[in-house]
Amino acid sequence: MIMTTVLADRVIIGPEFVPRFLDLPKVLVVPTGKVVDLAPDSTWDYVEVSGTLRVSRTAHTRLAFTTMIILPGGHFDCGIDDANDPIPADVHVEIVVRDVPIDTKRDPFQWGNGLLNFGRQDRCGAPKLEWTMLTNSVDDGATMITLADDPEGWAVGDELLITDTGYAGIRRETPVFVKSLNGRTVTLSKPLDFEHDLQKDLDGKVVGWPYVANLTRNIYLHSENPLGTRGHTANVGSGMWCICYNEFNGLGRTRGETLDVTTHDLSHIGTNQIGKYTDHAHHATGFDAASNMQSKYFGNVRRGAGPNTTVAKWGLSIHGTHDSLIERDICIDFYGAGFVTEDGYEVRNTFRRNFSAYCIGNHPGKGTPEAHSTVSLDVEGVNVKAHNNPGAAGCGYWWRGVMNTFEQNVAACNALGFVPFNVFTVPWSYPSTPGGDSDTPFRPQDSLPISFADNVASSNVNVGFEIWGVGPQPLERMTSINSGGSGIWVVASDNLQPVFVDPVVVAAQHGITSGQAYNDSLTIRGSGDYARCRVVACPIGIADGGGKHVSLKNILFQNEINLDWASASFAHGDLAVSCLYDHVMHVPVPDKPKQYIRFGSPETWDGTSPLPEVGTSQWLWQIGSQHVVIDWQGTGDDYQLFEPQSLASTIAWPSGPGQNRFNCPEVGLTMGECWTKYGIAWDGEALNDADAVHLEGLVYGLARKGRTSKLGVPRAPVTFPTVREPAVLGDYAGPYVEVFLLLTGAVDGADDNPRASVDGGEPQVVWQEAERPRTRRFFSRVTSAGLHDVTTWRVTPAGDKVPGSEMTFQYLVGEATLTLVPNVVGLQPADAASKLTGAGFVVGAVSTQESDKPKGEVLSQSPAAGSRAAAGSAVALVEAVPVPPPPVAALLPPGRYRLTDDAGTFVDFVVIKP
Which of 203, 550, 823, 873 lies 20 to 30 Å from 475, alpha-carbon distance? Predict the structure, then answer.
């Protein structure tokens, strides 16, 4: 609650004030302790209520004023509770804010020209069914519709809104009214302009319905001239309210343009003052502990100014207000957003079964909403600089405060449906208990929804749900249908961990977009019923990598591409590092190729061309394949998934600067050899060619049956720098060489902080992470010219060296004094000798090893390729010799045999085998 103080000439509102216009010609004052019955038709310059101002329940009433203030302790009684003593349906109350210019000298903060409540107001009209769905598709030209619910309170002449249900729907019916009623069947005042179809998935199952909202209420608040000085309404400070079944129309002065605000020292008078919305709870009393009363909005209609105009930025703004109820309200045609929590620290408010439609704003159909607070755009021929214009993208719901309850709300035909927006810190505190003192500082990182469940986004122009900065609190049973962009889009770079439970996404450009740059993980889990957890009828089901750790359970996909782990790639893909596919069902799209899981590319590196550009290094996790499938397509079979680069026979990428610094430290190895020697391979494991399985629908990928990997001894190989080129020296409190390592081998049994020693020096603990949890780096202060040995090893949790974990690598400082050893593995002896002598070396000792390789082919060399040695030194080679055939006896079954040569000599022998 903001502090308010009543002075003789003004009411102080925090650092601002609103004048008391007691000196104007026509003033109505209701003194403290008095009850005044409002005249049926009256017009005032100023109305001030300290007692009770009561509106008749039997006669129509029209109240017009320039400014009306309900002071603390005052009560405006315009119907008490929709179920207790409301304004009856046959009685109409009209409340008009007059078209009078604002006296900015007297009212520089422009709080006047509207209805301000610092006390209590009850404005409750006759109950009626606020909004519902149609039960069936209706064609263009239809004059009758059938409702899913009884039209309680509906009457002939009521105005209806029937939403578009098409893809990215922004079509709008010309005004249509109730002509007659017969049960749930409504006859319309005109034929419909276009069809309103049921929304269906690829199998014909109905997933969404046209919505119909009744826009008429018997308490009607509006500006006298919406094109002149528009009025506004606000509950402020100690103000409490029960506002039910009101219609707000033509109200709201804050435009969806650059804010231009009066400074607190009055050195500048604003021309687009913040906070003057159609309806505004401004640091007000959402719950009063003494009276156990909750402020509430219920069943109201707020109407903005329509498309192509920036006036009427927001419908309802809950600002610095806690524990209030907003239920079954309707907001349509607002430029920026229908329903808003403004600053972010608003807590425990309940938004339930509300409806927002046709809020279009400045969103151009792509990108993020706040990105467009700095663009220029033409609005009705006027160039509007939208800088400093938050929440102007055209959102059904712009919830900057997420510590609230959001259930069963609907967003239809907006630019963006739902935008929970938890990013910025504000210097405010909130009450830890309802009605209590503001005793808890707001921290975005601790801010989670109380409940986010059963919300529906239908036919929004761009995104159904745009999740900004919301943490791991499960978002349950979200439904997004016919979005022009993403059905669900998770953004904001805060290492988020979004969790979606039983989402349904149908017909979006991307079903779910959740990039690695924004999210540490993505979890989607279903209850086991594929009808309740699915992403279908999209070009791409999940796009942009999905996060570093993805977990999918009990979910059905039926899209042109279900899981596109290459959608953010350059060449080989920004592959999600980890994905668990637990009872995921892939259904083909009729007449489309089966693309269930798509990796980056079928191509493998040829060993000589420049390394391809990749969005993210594929060498960061070295603990086996991180793509594990449980129960592939209901067969009961489990698999691990790999890319073609992971095949053991492919050539390992050598390490180098930038994204390649965690690749194989040695040139010339196959992926299998690199995995065996260092525990390093593309995507975390080498796949033996003989074990590779092709799964239907796995694009650019391979599989291996089972879901466990055989990992080696825990080690920490140095991947960069190498001796292939001099190390780049940095300078921080002296020169240093940055050394990069990978943690490889079994995860258990070793501490995650390896040890390293340079040139036999004092061991140091390598703890600093470079990019991902399995990578490490440290600064070596050994920077003298020449070669330097780096020895690494792993230790147990008790600090003992892990047996077999010690490895030694080298880096080079300064100009090379030694020569780089060429790779001759795979060459015949003459070619190997020629290559070695050409590089300044000689052939050293030659040994042989049985092999199925061609005779003489070099199997290995020492020193290894890519290392450095003195010019003229010898390189030892191991050459292949054929494996000798087995003896004859080994080929014969047990028994007695006689061998005879050409001269007739014979030998008898017996074959005995176990």
Answer: 203
Query: Measuring CA to CA, how many Å separate 745 from each of 139, 676, 801, 871?
Result: 64, 10, 15, 36
- Domain presence at residue 713: no
Say if residue 197 is in the same domain as residue 114: no
Phi, psi angle pair for 95, to nearest 5° = -115, 120
User: 675: which 2 tokens?
Assistant: 């995995």
187 shares a domain with 70: no
- The model's pTM: 0.86
Chain segment 292-335, per-residue pLDDT in tens: 999 999 999 999 997 778 899 999 999 999 999 999 999 999 99
Strands (E), 172-295: 176-182, 185-188, 199-200, 206-208, 211-214, 219-223, 233-236, 240-244, 246-249, 279-282, 287-288, 293-294
Q: Which two tokens stand for residue 827?
A: 């060459």
700 and 727 assigned to the same domain: no
Q: Which two tokens stand for residue 436?
A: 């209590």
Rounded CA-CA distance 875/833 in Å is 10
Task: Say if residue 42 is exposed, middle or buried (CB neighbours under 10 Å; 0-12, 13-18, 19+).
Answer: middle
Q: Where are the alpha helices (DSSP H) in 246-339?
A: none
121 falls within a domain: yes
- Whether residue 400 contacts residue 349, with contact meaning beta carbons closer than 8 Å, is answered with no
Give the N- to C-terminal CA distance of the chain in Å, as an integer. 92
590-611 pLDDT per residue, tens: 999 999 999 888 888 888 888 8
Q: Are residues 103 and 31 in the same domain?
A: yes
In a domain, 8, yes or no: yes
Cβ(785)–Cβ(764) below 8 Å: no
CA distance 196 to 215: 19
- Domain count along the chain: 5
Give the span between the Cα atoms of 420 and 7, in whole angstroms.
39
Contact at 8 Å (CB) between 538 and 511?
A: yes
The answer to the question of residue 76 being in a domain is yes
For residue 770, give the CATH number of its domain: 2.60.40
3-state secondary structure of 910: strand
How many other C-beta atoms lie within 10 A of the C-beta of residue 529?
A: 11
Distance separating alpha carbons of residues 206 and 182, to the nearest angstrom: 26
State the pLDDT confidence band at 377, using cuts at 50, 70 and 90.
very low
C-alpha–C-alpha distance, residues 193 and 214, integer Å: 18
Q: For the chain, how big is the Rg over CA atoms in Å?
A: 37
CA–CA gap between residue 804 and residue 711 (Å, rounded):
13
Which strands sit side by side in the sheet containing 786-793, from one edge to the other?
Answer: 764-765, 755-758, 786-793, 807-813
The DSSP annotation for 131-189 comes to EEEBSS-B-TT--EEEBSS--TT--TT-EEEE---STT----PPPEEEEEEETTEEEES
Is residue 625 left, alpha or beta, with left meaning phi > 0 and alpha meaning psi from -120 to 50?
Answer: beta
CA angle (106, 107, 112) in 5-degree steps: 130
Domain limits at 54?
Answer: 1-126+245-268
Contact 616, 626 (CB under 8 A): no
- Spatial distance between the Cα atoms of 361 and 312, rounded to a whole number of angstroms: 10
Same-domain status, 681 and 638: yes
- Are residues 16 and 70 both part of a single domain? yes
> Residue 791 in contact with residue 778, Cβ under 8 Å?
no
Distance CA 170, CA 358 (A): 7
> Do 755 and 698 lie in a common domain?
no
| Nearest residue to 109 (alpha-carbon basis) of 11, 23, 25 | 11
